[in-house]
């Protein structure tokens, strides 16, 4: 409980195909720096595709997220986007979570790359009413919101905060590529996720799966 009597909840949205240590370090660092009571991981609903590739089934992505976060008492996983069952928009995620947690202030956690696209495509004024945004550094992406400065002038100072976190040059794309080529993903993703990928033959080209 915090000075204003409200809980502080982080919201870490992602496709998590698969979840990796870059996601977990980002969530852990923001939890610590903002003294969050909890970080809720929210795997996206099933998009038809992401860019030009098929996305693994939502249940597999959800289960990998549960496996990866289970040991941290401050981490949990929400099914709101998975159960909505269509393309995920951040505003819907935040609306649903705000309704489920009326006693909490929400902090949406996002990497530098994703922040830029969220703020490009969606109505910020509504997003900023629902949550504060925390952008974390990510190797290979510029963390630059200077072009937002003008628009942000009308909002409280902590509407969007950028922070530097320990750099992990890991992406789900690279994990999928490696798994597909039979190269190891050990230590890029949690052990249980390595085993889940192998058990479900995720990312293996279809004809070579058992
Ligand atoms: P893909 O390569 O399929 O796009 P991804 O690694 O970017 O996968 P997402 O599920 O798209 O993972 O990302 C979810 C969130 O985590 C986004 O806000 C993204 O910017 C952030 N993120 C992902 N990897 C890192 C990382 N290594 N460091 C910091 N933030 C990250
Ligand atoms: Mg991504």
From TrEMBL:
Hey, which pathway is this one from?
Answer: Cofactor biosynthesis; NAD(+) biosynthesis; deamido-NAD(+) from nicotinate D-ribonucleotide: step 1/1
CDD domains linked? NMNAT
Limits of the Cytidyltransferase-like domain: 11-178
Q: Does the keyword Transcription apply?
A: no
Query: What is this enzyme's EC?
Result: 2.7.7.18
Pfam families listed in its UniProt record: CTP_transf_like (PF01467)
Tell me, in a sentence or two, what this protein's role is.
Catalyzes the reversible adenylation of nicotinate mononucleotide (NaMN) to nicotinic acid adenine dinucleotide (NaAD).
NCBIfam families documented for this protein:
cyt_tran_rel, nicotinate (nicotinamide) nucleotide adenylyltransferase, PRK00071.1-3
Family of the protein in this entry: Belongs to the NadD family.
Designated name of the protein? Probable nicotinate-nucleotide adenylyltransferase
Instruction: Name the species this protein comes from.
Output: Nocardia aurantiaca
């Amino acid at each position: 409980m915090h000075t204003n009597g409200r809980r502080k909840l982080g919201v870490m949205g992602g496709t998590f195909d698969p979840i990796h240590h870059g996601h977990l370090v980002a969530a852990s660092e923001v939890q610590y720096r903002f003294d969050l009571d909890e970080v809720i991981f929210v795997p996206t609903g099933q998009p038809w595709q992401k860019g030009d590739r098929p996305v693994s089934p939502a249940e597999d992505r959800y289960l990998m997220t549960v496996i990866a976060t289970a040991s941290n008492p401050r981490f949990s996983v929400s099914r709101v986007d998975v159960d909505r069952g269509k393309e995920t928009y951040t505003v819907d995620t935040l609306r649903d979570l705000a309704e489920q947690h009326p006693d909490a202030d929400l902090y949406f956690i996002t990497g530098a790359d994703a922040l830029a696209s969220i703020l490009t495509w969606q109505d910020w004024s509504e997003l900023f009413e629902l949550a504060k945004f925390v952008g974390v550094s990510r190797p290979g992406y510029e963390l630059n919101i200077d072009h937002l400065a003008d628009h942000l002038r009308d909002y409280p100072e902590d509407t969007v905060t950028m922070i530097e976190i320990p750099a992990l040059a890991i992406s789900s794309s690279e994990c999928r590529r490696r798994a597909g080529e039979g190269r190891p993903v050990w230590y890029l993703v949690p052990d249980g996720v390595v085993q889940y990928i192998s058990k479900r033959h995720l990312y293996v080209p279809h004809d070579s799966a058992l």
